[in-house]
Amino acid sequence: MEISNQHNRLLRDVIGHVQKIHPDLDIIFFDTTEAYLHILRNPSLYNFNNVRDPCYTGGLELLALANAGNTGGSATAALPPHNINMTSCTNPENYIGWDGIHLTDAMYGAMMKLFLTDARFTSPFPNFLTPCTNH
């Protein structure tokens, strides 16, 4: 977290410097880390009821096996074993994580809504995108 926070502080400084040099340039900063943590702390506000489990299961196991078998062997060695159960949940709109790495469309939508409408995570706010949104 400290690395992410340090990165965001430096990025904000660079954005401020660039905007002073080029005042006609519109740069919007979105703090994805803080927005993500906000949603994790308040999942019910965004209709999430599962913040830990991935909706789609089996994908990471398949990836791990594919990488472990990536030794330049035969093409049949790269085929997935039949005992990995790859399934998706029936309600992905209630999950934050899709497969343990990627977010669900619902989570991306919640993050985008914060980007477009919430000054706690976006600066400057309001900005040139603000008139385009329906609050």
Average pLDDT metric: 85
Beta strands, count: 6
Question: Span between N and C termini?
Answer: 30 Å
The largest pleated sheet is described as: 2 strands, antiparallel
Poorly predicted spans: none
- The share of residues in extended strands comes to 5-15%
Estimate the helix proportion, in percent.
Answer: 25-40%
Radius of gyration: 20 Å
Family: Belongs to the 'GDSL' lipolytic enzyme family.
Protein name: GDSL esterase/lipase
GO molecular function, one term: hydrolase activity, acting on ester bonds
Pfam families: Lipase_GDSL (PF00657)
Element layout with pairings:
Layout: H1 2-21, E1 29-30, H2 32-41, E2 50-54, E3 56-57, H3 59-68, E4 87-88, E5 95-97, H4 105-117, E6 122-123
Parallel strand pairs: 2-5
Antiparallel strand pairs: 1-6, 3-4
Helix pairs in contact: 2-4
